[in-house]
Amino acid sequence: MTDKNTSSKYSKEYKLSISNPKLFDAIKMAIAILIALAITFVILCLISKDPINALKTILLGPLSKRRYIGAVIESFISFAFAGLAAGVLFKAGGFNMGAEGIFIITGAVVAWIASSPVTSSPILHPILCYLGAMLVGGILMILPSFLKAKFGTNEMVVSLMLNSIYAGVTAYIVRTFIATQQRGSVSSKDYLASARIGYLYEPLRISACFILLIIVTIGLYLMMNKTKLGYQMRLAGVNPKFAEYSGVSAFRLSITTAVIAGVLCGMGSTTQLLTQTSYYTPAQSLVGIGFSGMLLSMLGKNNPIGIVIAAFFIKYLEQGAAILYFVDNAVPSEIVSIVEGIIIMLISSQYFLRRLRERQLLKEGLEEHAK
Amino acid sequence: MLSSIFSTLFSMRFLVTIVRLATPIVFAAIGTFIAAQSGIGNIAIESIMTFAALASVLGSYLSGSAWVGVLFGIGIGIVTVMLIAFFSMKMGANAMLIMIALNTFADAVAIFVLYLVTGEKGTTASLTTPVLGSIDIPIIKDIPILGEILSGQYVLTYLCWIIVILLFIFIYKTPTGMRLRACGLNADAARTAGINVEKMRVLSLVLSGIFAALGGIYLSLNYLKIFSRGMVSGQGWMGVAANGISAGNYWILILSALIFAIFRAVSIIFSSNSAIPTDLVNAIPYLAVFAILTIVSIVNYYRVKRGHVEEQ
Amino acid sequence: MSETILKLDNVTKVYPNGTVANRDINMEFEKGEIHSIVGENGAGKSTLMKVIFGIERPSSGTVTYKGKETDFNSSMDAIKAGIGMVHQHFMLIPSFSIVDNIILGDEPKNGIFIDKKEAAKRCQELSDKYNFELDVNAKVSTLSVAKRQKVEILKTLYRNAELIILDEPTSVLTPQETDKLFDQLRSFKEQGHTILFISHKLEEVKKISDKISVIRNGVSKGTYLNEELTMQQLTNLIIGRDLDNDMNAYKTNEDFHGEKALQVKDLYMERNGKPVLDHMSFAVKAGEILGIAGVEGNGQQELVRCITGLEETKYTGEIDICGNVVNDLKIKGRRNLGMAYIPEDRMGDGIAGALPISDNLISTYYDREDINGKIFMDTKAIRKTSEDLVDTFAVKTKSIDTSVNSLSGGNIQKVVVAREYNTHSKFMIAEQPTHGIDIGSEEFVHHKLIEMRNAGAGILLVSANLNEVMSLSDRIIVMFDGQIAGYFPKAQEVNESELGMYMLGARHQTPEEIGGALND
User: What ipTM was predicted for this assembly?
Assistant: First the structure.
């Protein structure tokens, strides 16, 4: 005990040891990543002629050229939004998996606004796209959560069915209202130039979306950890019966979190379309992002900052895998999913490395006893 | 035009289509049901079907025998559920999260393996694989209407309905079935009666994995004769939904699965008709599951409100 | 000379988290005796039973059954050896028939199928042999608590148990049902069964036992013949001091003419077409404790759910908290009017186990001004509040950041009570407030309830523990079958057997007498 420690006897003790739960989690994560990479290496040994170089390319490739790292920065943003959306839902104990469908259907909204001459202002036009997608996303995400909160309907199945329904509706809307005959597959007209989002710092492809992500992440972090809403989410996420007993309205909470998640999905789809595409192809442009968001949320343990870091990490690996595929097409880029899967399995295992920690706790307990 | 739709709806071919489309959904449904009976919500059915669909085709290709392919598929199904069992029972992970993760990267893993074997990321069309065929039942096949439905179906369809009956007997008439149900209804009671609850749950998970795998194998090795990416397309989830609707009643489970199959058949018939936009027609089965699931839960909600509660 | 059936030698059980539940316990049980094991909650009785029944393995020492050292891997081995156990919480499957419950795990077979006919025949014969008066084809969900207990006992007899362990079997029974059970136990004894009776109710132990063994703090305090012990000696052995049983001594305010904290008028609710709450009317005034006695399952849980606003099924009648009709309000609205609630299901409703103690100490008033800033919650104020509560309620923990599920049951309950205490509510529902916690914590909780009462709160105490109801309450209501069967305006003047008659439904007061419960 130092003199500085003037707070009361029940205060936190920050120990540099695995008995400290936060540090233990970090160590767990690091070891999980190492194990996942080791397994990846074994797989690479089986399928690649030069496994050492292959692993090196995946891990260091993105750093070799500025435009590679730029591509990571540009592509991880929409991905991170999907992760944040899932994080908000999971944190409050929801199993609404509607992000995938919301991404796809809000894509149609973005494509419609972006391809219409609603304004010629290069600032206002993207903003209108964002607002439209956020509005539609926020509203449509409510349905599964509403049904679950009000009638106890299985929100997982409902939201998955809605994903397929929304995909059909989106294809229909794009085909019927904003399609162009120029291309083979069903896709929208080209966006107008005013809707495209430019770079603030071109060499690293940093755009205003990057700043938006940072602001949203900090906002969500504060919301989850410092506000009443965040407190309600924690209660409901850990023990919904206790939340109900304590007077947290499960109904209001699940609607609120669904709206927030839907809005985040809208942000994600707009970002993706206006920075990565010049027209919208429903069967391609946004497919899979919503689902990947759930994996990100698990990697980041529902913590907004963790989720954003995870998004960067995964996109970084994907970029590395893409570079590897370019030089050695024996290794498909899906190998990243395997890395991701292994890490998720390991870090969600409570007993992973538990013995190590218990031994330390016992040791510290005995030491304290000896005093 | 409408009349042509109606004539198809009431034709023999429509019934045959339903039986064909029902097979994977019924497999998925009984797979979910048997796990739920022992107290485990197996929501990984969709991913198990995907894995098994691919594994069976590859197994068949590598061995040159379709039945070895079936064993491959079943093996992968068992490996997947054992993975779930290991992480949730031995590693203290949240089973729900593990299964969500499995479902989410199932496609990527399948594509990864597919690419390694075929060099393509879409289908196994480039592989020449022995597949499973259909069975003509002598005598029955000559009966006018019945023959068309009962005979000439795919091998795994017959297996499916045999399993449906055997599973009913297993769950409700045998000691092991009763013990398994006890684990789901009151695990502590089962434990004090000397039942090894964990073992029972692993058993039910393994059965669940086998049934789901058969659903996937049917799709690739029997029905479409190839594996193609995204081919399971929610049929596993329809099984999960059927289990939700059944509320533990076996025959309602089968009935729900059949109803979902009818809507799939309807969607297929409509999609060959240009009057209605295909994009929307494709969504019909999902809309049906959504609507039925929602209605059932609303009805239950008002039942509880009016004071109908059953002690499990 | 009688023969020894079970012998414990230096049995010690240490749990992985370091808790020593049993230390060097030596006991001997003779065939054909009724042998009680007594001790406070948390003294180590349950652990010892688990060791005997094969659920836990002893860390050291030996258990010898019928002359052979046991090596049980699970309760199955104990059952095979001839030991049966009736658990405090029934281990039954309500949707199964009595037969299915009895045969589960040891089913008569016909080929690969269950031989249902043979099973029913054997169960019915067994039931008739012991005069249990059960229709074995009935579903367990339709049975009363006492009948369910009979099914539990039949389960052990079906497996030919010679030694039957009964864990707190009377906690769910009325005094009259208890007497019947005791008659049955005596007849078992005559037929050569050995009964191991676990209880903390000393009067019952004195009534039924041949021998009594005492456990305190995990250590055996010896085995005595029933007749060589007085009640006083037994008490001293169990807690090491005289029991502080009379809570009335701590009551300062005897004037119950305050405002009504709760008024329930004509409350009626149906479940599956049958009334579970049948036109109940009563009131709790500020500064009093109204106790609700009754056998579990007579509508108490539903009553509490209706009052707290957690009930989903529709009910009629009027509920009034601190002068406001609250029928249309959910739990939060009712809390805002001044309701606090200590729930029965501590782990399920009362805490979020994975969250820190501090989060658990503010959950029911997390939106209160004193712990909130304009946008953010006031972390400092929350810490201060939590630390004060942990101090006042003597919660044993090193830090308020520890997750609450690492605490013992008693300390978790202190967290729950501390939180509800800190709502400063005018009306408190205490539902089984000391169920399953150690005697020290129990006494602490009782004192806190009295303190709140003295400070002017109206408390509705719902408890299956008759002693608790009688020692804390100012007035008592007995519930039977969803109705108020009896109302006793002076709790001190009631005796246990009288309450029992009402709990069992053998007596029922007139509407006029019951009408007094409204306390107008």
Answer: 0.88
Encode pLDDT of C410-442 as tens digits: 889 999 999 999 999 999 999 999 887 777 788
Question: Would you state the pLDDT for residue A1?
Answer: 35
On chain B, the residues whose CB falls within 8 A of the CB of C269 are 307
Nearest CA in chain B to A158: B290
Please write the tens of the pLDDT for every residue from A194-234.
888 888 888 888 888 999 999 999 999 999 999 999 999 99
Measure the CA–CA gap between A22 and A303, rounded to whole angstroms.
Answer: 13
Cα A147 to Cα B298: distance, rounded to the nearest angstrom: 9
Confidence at C245, pLDDT banded by 50, 70, 90: low
Contact B87 A158 (CB under 8 A): no
- Nearest neighbour of A169 by CB, restricted to B90, B92, B283: B283
Domain residue limits, chain C: 4-239, 247-338+425-518, 351-424
In this predicted structure, what is the pLDDT of residue B178? 95
Nearest to B290 among A162, A348, A352 (CB): A162
> How high is the mean pLDDT of chain A?
88
* Cβ contact A151–B111 (<8 Å): no
CATH architecture for residues C4-239: 3-Layer(aba) Sandwich (3.40)
The answer to whether B219 and B53 are in contact (CB under 8 A) is: yes
Q: Can you list the pairs that B169-177 forms with residues at least 24 positions away whose Cβ atoms lie under 8 Å?
A: B171/B34, B171/B37, B171/B250, B172/B250, B173/C113, B173/C114, B174/C112, B174/C113, B174/C114, B175/C107, B175/C109, B175/C114, B176/B203
pLDDT of residue A2: 38
Identify whether the C-beta of residue C449 lies closer than 8 Å to the C-beta of residue C472: yes
Residue in C76, C91, C114 nearest the CB of B189: C91
| pLDDT at residue B4, as a whole number | 65
Residue C497, pLDDT > 80, answer no
C247-338+425-518 matches C4-239 in CATH topology: yes
Range of A256's domain? 71-301
Q: pTM of whole model > 0.90? A: no
From the list C353, C366, C386, the residue facing A228 with the nearest CB is C366
- Model pLDDT, residue A6: 40
Contact of C348 with chain A, judged by CB distance below 8 Å, is answered with yes
pLDDT at C129 over 50: yes
Residue C223 backbone dihedrals phi, psi, to 5 degrees: -115, 135
Out of B175, B186, B196, closest to residue C109 by CB? B175
Angle between helices A99-114 and A250-276 (to 10 degrees): 50
Report residue A133's pLDDT band, with 50, 70 and 90 as the boundaries.
very high
Q: Domain segments of chain B: what residues?
A: 22-246
Q: What is the pLDDT of residue C363?
A: 93
N-term to C-term CA, chain C: 65
Chain C positions in Cβ-Cβ contact with residue A222 (cut-off 8 Å): 376
Question: C-alpha angle with apex B212: B207 to B213, nearest 5 degrees?
Answer: 95
Domain count, chain A: 1
Q: Which residues of B touch C91 (CB under 8 A)?
A: 186, 188-189, 191-193
Assigned CATH class of C247-338+425-518:
alpha beta
Which residues between 74 and 113 in chain A have a beta carbon less than 8 angstroms from any beta carbon of chain C? none
The Cα B290–Cα C122 span in angstroms is 48
CA distance, residue C355 to nearest chain A CA (Å):
7
Q: Where are the alpha helices (DSSP H) in C6-115?
A: 45-52, 75-81, 98-103
What CA–CA distance (Å, rounded) separates C411 from A156? Answer: 37
Instruction: Please state the rounded mean pLDDT for residues A5-24.
Output: 62
Measured between alpha carbons, how far is A1 from C23 in angstroms, rounded to an integer?
A: 36
Q: What pLDDT, on the 0 to 100 scale, is given for residue C34?
A: 92
> Does residue C188 belong to the interface with chain A, where contact is any CB pair within 8 Å?
no
Largest pairwise CA distance in chain C: 80
- Tell me if A350 and B297 make a contact (CB, 8 A cut-off): no
